[in-house]
Design brief:
The chain has 873 residues and is of the alpha/beta class. Helices cover 30% and strands 23% of the residues. The longest helix has 17 residues, at 315-331.
Length: 873
């Protein structure tokens, strides 16, 4: 006698038992959501009078392939011990002699010529052609076995085949028709019961009471999360009431009335969102990232199907935002997380998606970065958000916005801590309405922007109680408070006031949000941080939310450049079309090269004689022409991004063009490729593997020296408005005075930053591009490197040797005859050195004619640099 196999089926609840006990040959069951219709269908399929466990062939028809996956998994778990074989993906044969076939009703090739004892059709109210399916496929398949059919669904109005079959069944003795509400299920999930109390009455009747309404209520998953007329601010306030937490803390807008204005910007209709750009220039720790992510979720639901691009400066930051910020917030909104994980947009298995692409119903989130060409140009978008804009180039952001060109929405949201004036987020803020919060003085009624009167807007009140008293401290009065600049009255609530636009006619809506408007930041916090700040730029950016330029970080301004031009014009400098013995620097960017050409003046100062901005498919061809036209004796060009083009250019001018690469060098400013090999590893390298005509630079040091020439008026210009060329920007080409409008602008957009690394306990130096890519600054620096090759370098190029005897007189007239280079004779003949010249500097090595500070060969009479320190003679 064989062993007994037990199959465990769910225990039907009372409503299911009623339908099973009084079943007809054909059965129509209208049941509310989560009422248990699928469980009822599985019971009929397996254990019914002509079910699979009784040896009959059976079939299950699901609305979609995605729905079929889950129900098939449930059925197979139940009958696992009875499975005989699975001849194909559709069929399962049982040891009882029965079989189960699984069909998806959205399969365009659906057909069956099988005969079944039981057929179950699940979620069929929205199936197109259900009546034809019933008459042409299902009924014929039941003929041989006199089979039983079950049609199950949540009602969807009266204008469909499911309602028609329900009505037919009520008048035919072969049919049984049932209506059960969701609440007939004693195991109804608590959250579903709670949801039923929140929806509209028609929605409740259809979804939960299984009523056939005259007009179907068709709600997407998104519409079940946000109401039909629910704005973003309304939804967020509802989330607050439902207990939303961010980073473990309750989310709240109730103590942030000034922040409400920002939340109210987010559009809730297509006409509000279309071609709209909203900009928030902010301080730190005010919750913009949380607001941005909630806004993107809302827009993905409201305008589904929508493609949302959330951009960060780098791939690492984009991945971190997706995993460490976005998903934790999604998980705190259960309905959103359930929608994301239960069924993704592709219709396959649910899940959170991967770190860079996540689905929310039919909408999709892309977590991307602006620093890569593919990321900025590849994917079309409907909504784009930018976070941490202070690290993004304006040109990259503009390219990214082109992704919206084919969208029905074209909405952009950007926010960031402020950085440099007229760059990154401040650039966009100035293009907008420039909303500022005007705090109301309760004493005189004056409205004022507190940060415009900082630090005078904070005063010490010796009689005010302290906000926080630490344990062990005496509870003495005295506290910092905000004060009115007009009447000097105290202001205790800086969020009482109104937002006003400085430029109300602008299209872009831009907002400045400082820490004064945060309920968690006190006046004491603000003023103590100000007095303790080592980095004032960091304070203005992070606390006041305002851009700031530290003069020590941006070494060149227009006043300095104009002074260099004034002296150059006074000395008769002009822009040249031909010259000899010049030096060239090239900054290359593919089909765009920037060229700076200089020559040496008699006193050792530099003269810029030509600038060229080359927009061409082969810009190096024009560079070769300039090499000949200006008799360039030494040129330095960046190796990247187009190494092959740069290498071919260098090979056309052997020994005159050097390829430049960058690296941090503790003790050197630059190292030429044709210097004697300094270490054993280099010496073992085959000569064919070495490239002689290269130079490795410390970018920070070289840019520092190059910018210092402007500050010391060691680099002079002709008339800045006198050199006019065609210049292309944003696809538009027009004649521009390139020195005045382009080069000078680039020079003032180059910063030298030294930041302390708290972990390594040392300063790290870097060159920062302020808002734009200052190509002319880099070309100018490379030109100065070429200059150093001839007028001071770690590898000395000997000038022509004059073989004539030279008589050098010393002291009492004794003569010494030597044959030596003319440069060496000059060193010996410099007896009377005055002023700030190299020969009088402590860094000058007279024996070698070498500057120890800048690692260059110099002449005693050369003008001193910004590092000049006079010897104590």
């Amino acid at each position: 006698m064989g062993s007994e196999i037990k199959i465990r089926l769910p225990e039907p609840h009372k409503a299911q038992q009623k339908a099973l006990a009084r079943a007809g040959r054909f059965n129509v069951v209208a049941m509310g959501e989560q009422g248990g219709k699928t469980t009822l269908g599985i019971e009929a399929l397996l254990a019914g009078p002509k079910g699979a466990l009784r040896g009959f062939p059976t079939a299950w028809f699901a609305e979609t392939a995605a729905d079929l996956v889950e129900v098939k998994r449930q059925v197979l778990r139940i009958v696992d011990a009875l499975i005989k074989r699975r001849p194909n993906a559709r069929r399962v044969e049982l040891t009882t002699g029965g079989l189960i076939d699984f069909y998806a009703l959205d399969d365009a090739k659906l057909e069956t010529f099988e005969q079944y004892g039981t057929v179950v059709l699940d979620d069929v109210a929205r199936v197109d052609g259900l009546l034809d399916l019933w008459e042409d496929v299902v009924l014929p398949a039941l003929r041989q076995h006199g089979g039983q059919a079950w049609l199950l669904s949540v009602p969807f109005g009266k204008k469909n085949a499911f309602h028609k079959l329900y009505q037919m069944g009520r008048e035919d003795p072969d049919w049984s028709c049932w209506q059960f509400s969701s609440f007939a299920n004693p195991h109804l999930p608590v959250e579903m019961a709670a949801e039923a109390e929140k929806v509209t009455e028609p929605e409740r009747l259809q979804r939960f009471e299984a009523e056939f309404l005259d007009v179907a209520i068709e709600l997407t998953d998104a519409q079940r999360i946000i109401g039909p007329d629910e704005r973003f601010i309304d939804w967020c306030e509802r989330l607050e009431q439902d207990g939303l937490k961010v980073d473990g803390h309750p989310f709240s807008l109730s103590d942030r009335p000034a922040m409400r204005f920002v939340y109210e910007l987010i559009p809730s209709a297509i006409e509000e969102a279309y071609e709209r750009t909203d900009v928030i220039m902010k301080c730190t720790q005010v919750g913009f990232t949380v607001m941005e992510m909630l806004a993107m979720i809302y827009l993905a639901l409201r305008f589904a199907p929508a493609k949302i691009g959330m951009f960060m400066p780098s791939q690492m930051l984009a991945s971190g935002k997706s995993s460490e910020r976005f998903m934790p917030i999604v998980k705190t909104v259960p309905s959103v997380y359930r929608m994301m994980t239960e069924k993704n947009a592709s219709g396959g298995r649910g899940g959170e998606g991967n770190v860079l692409i996540r689905n929310l119903g039919p909408s999709r989130f892309h977590f991307l970065w602006t620093s890569g060409k593919t990321a900025t140009e590849s994917f079309p978008m409907d909504v784009v958000s930018f976070d941490e804009v202070q690290e993004m180039a304006i040109a990259d952001m503009e390219k990214t916005q082109e992704r919206l060109s084919a969208s029905f929405l074209k909405y952009t949201l950007m926010g960031s801590t402020a950085n440099w004036p007229d760059s990154d987020i401040h650039f966009w803020y100035k293009k907008g309405k420039q909303y500022q919060f005007h705090t109301l003085c309760p004493h005189c009624g004056t409205h004022q922007v507190l940060d415009e009167h900082f630090p005078q807007c904070i005063g010490y009140d010796p009689e005010a109680p302290k906000r926080v008293t630490r344990r062990g401290e005496p509870n003495l009065p005295g506290e910092y408070r905000y004060r009115c600049h007009e009447c000097q009255g105290w202001i205790d609530d800086p969020q009482q006031g109104e937002w006003r636009a400085k430029n109300p006619d602008a299209e872009i809506r831009s907002i400045h949000f400082p820490q004064f408007l945060s309920p968690t930041i006190s006046p004491r916090n603000m003023i103590e941080a100000y007095h303790n700040a080592d980095d004032m730029k960091n304070y203005f950016n992070r606390k006041l939310g305002k851009p700031y330029t530290d003069p020590s970080q941006v070494p060149v301004n227009l006043e300095m450049l104009n002074a260099c031009a004034e002296e150059g014009m006074a000395r008769g400098l002009v822009w040249k079309t031909r010259a000899r013995g010049t030096f060239m620097g090239i900054d290359q960017m593919g089909a765009f090269n920037v060229v700076v050409i200089k020559e040496r003046l008699e006193d050792g100062k530099q003269a810029v004689v030509h600038l060229k901005y080359i927009f061409d498919a082969d810009p190096f061809a024009r560079c070769s022409e300039l090499m000949d036209q200006f008799g360039v004796q030494c040129c330095v060009v960046e190796t990247l991004p187009n190494y092959n083009d740069a290498k071919r250019f260098a090979q056309r001018h052997p020994g005159r063009v050097f390829l430049a690469g960058y690296g941090n060098m503790d003790n050197e400013m630059l190292i030429w490729g044709d210097t004697p090999l300094s270490n054993a590893s280099d010496r073992r390298t085959d000569d064919s593997e070495l490239d002689r005509y290269t130079v490795r630079l410390d970018q920070y040091k070289c840019m520092q020296v190059s910018m210092a020439r402007f500050a010391k008026k060691l680099c002079l210009f002709p008339d800045p408005a006198g050199l006019v060329q065609d210049y292309t920007e944003k696809g538009e080409t027009k004649p521009v005075p390139v020195c005045k409008d382009v080069a000078f602008f680039h020079f003032t957009r180059t910063a030298l930053i030294a930041e302390k690394d708290e972990e390594e306990k040392k300063y790290k130096r870097r060159v920062v591009k302020v808002g734009i890519d200052p190509h002319t600054s880099y070309a100018n620096m490379l030109c100065d490197v070429a200059w150093a090759r001839a007028h001071g370098t770690s590898t000395f190029l000997m000038p022509q040797i004059d073989e004539k005897p030279v008589q050098i007189l010393r002291g009492g007239g004794s003569a010494v005859l030597e044959t030596m280079p003319s440069a060496a004779r000059q060193v010996l003949q410099q007896d009377d050195l005055t002023g700030e010249v190299c020969g009088r500097c402590t860094a000058f090595d007279a024996d070698r004619g070498y500057c120890n500070e800048r690692a260059m060969l110099v002449r005693p009479a050369d003008p001193g640099c910004f590092q000049f320190v006079a010897k104590d003679w």
